[in-house]
Amino acid sequence: MSEPSPAARRARGAVAALFFTNGALFANVVPRYPELKADLGLSNAGLGSAVAAYGLGALVFGLLAGVMVSRWGSVRVAPVTVVVSAANLVLLGVAPSWAALAAVLFVSGALDSIADVAENAHGLRVERLYRRSILNSMHGVWSIGAVAGGAMGAAAAGLELSLTVHLTIAAVLFAALAIGASRFLLPGPDDSELTATADEAVGGLRAAGRLRIARSVVALGVIAAMAQVMEDSTATWGAVYLREELGAAAAVSGLGFIALQASQTVGRLIGDRVVTRYGDRAVARAGAALAGAAMAGALAAPGIATTVLALGAVGLGIGTLIPGSLRTADELPGLPRGVGLSLVGLVPRIAILAAPPLVGVVADATSLRAALLVIPLAAAVVLVLASALPGGPMRR
Question: CATH number of the domain at 6-185+198-388, please?
Fold first, then answer.
C-alpha cells in the first residue's frame, strides 16, 4: 500500500483540527447548564425544551447541509461554519430569557449540522486518498475537542468566571484554529477522488434492490440515533443529575461529561484497529452491552463516583457506533457516494430534537434518575439492530 502524499497528510491534520474545534466549542457550555438553568429559573422540562431547539435547528438545516456542501464545497463550508459557530457561542452567555436561549441554541444546532456534514465529507475525501479507514480517529479528535471544551467549562464554573467572558475566550481561540487549518484542506470539488460514474451508481441501485437498501439505511440511522441519545442524555443531564440529585459540587458535576468524552475518545482512537480485527458488528454489540449494563448498575445503586464511572463506560461503549454507521452507509451498494451518509445522518438529528425534552418531562413527572433509564434502553436497541453493520474482520 502506497504512502499518502504530503498534501493528503496535511489535509488529514487540517480536517482533524476542524473536528477538534467543532467538538470543543459547544462542549464549553455543557458543564454550565446548571448555571444557565438557575439563572433563568428553568424547570427540567424548560431546560430540556430549550436544548431541543438545538436539535430542531440541526434537523431543519441538516436537510440543507448537503445542498450547501454540494454548492460551495466542504473546503469552504467547513471552516466558515466553525467560525460563525464560535461567534454565535458568545450569545449564550447573554441570553436573558428562555426564548433567547432557545433561539441561540437553534442557531447553534443549525451551524453544527452544516459543519458535521462538511467535515465528514472532507474526512471521507481524505480517507479515499489514504485507502484505509481513518474516520474513527477523526471522530476521536472531535471527542478530544469535546473533552478540552468540557474541561474549560468545568474550570470556568469552578473559578466562577462569567459566562460571557468564558465563552468569548473560547470563541476567539477556536475560531483562530479553524481559520489556520483551512489553508491545508484539499482543494477542488468533493467528488475529486471518486471513480464511479453516476450511471454505475444508479444501475447498482436497481440491482441491489431499493427496499433492502432502505431497510439498511433505516437500521443504520437508528443505530446512530441511539448512540446520539446515549451521548446527549448524559451530556445534557449528567451534570444536572450529579449536582441536583446526588449533591456534587459545581466543579465535580462537570466530571461526568468529561468522563463520557474522554472514554469516547479512547474508543474512537483505537476504533480503527479494533473494528478492522473484529468487525463493526461485534464491536457495536460489545459496546452497547457495556454502556447499558454500566448505566443500569449506576442508576440502581446511585453515587457520585459510580455515576461518573458509568458515564465513562457509556462513552467507551458508543465510541465507534456513529462512525461505523456513517462508513457503512457510505459504502452501501447502489447508492452514490455521500447519499447514504446524508440519509443516515438525518436520523440522529431527529433524536437530538426528541430526547432532551422527553427526558426533562419524565424527570419532572418522576425523577431524573428514572428518566436516565433511556440510556440502557437505547443500548438494547443497538444490540437488536447491530446486524445491519458488517460482520467479521474488515478487509481492505
Answer: 1.20.1250.20
